[in-house]
Amino acid sequence: MLSMEPPEDICRSKTICDDTFEVSINCTPTRCFVDLHLDSGREGLSQTYSDCKKTWLLFPPTQENLINFARTAGYQDRLLRCGDKLQGGIVLETSSKDVLDIPAGTLHAVFTTAGGFLGGINYSTSEGLGVMSRIIAAQLPFYNSAPIQINEDLE
Question: Is the pTM of this model over 0.90?
Answer without folding.
Answer: no
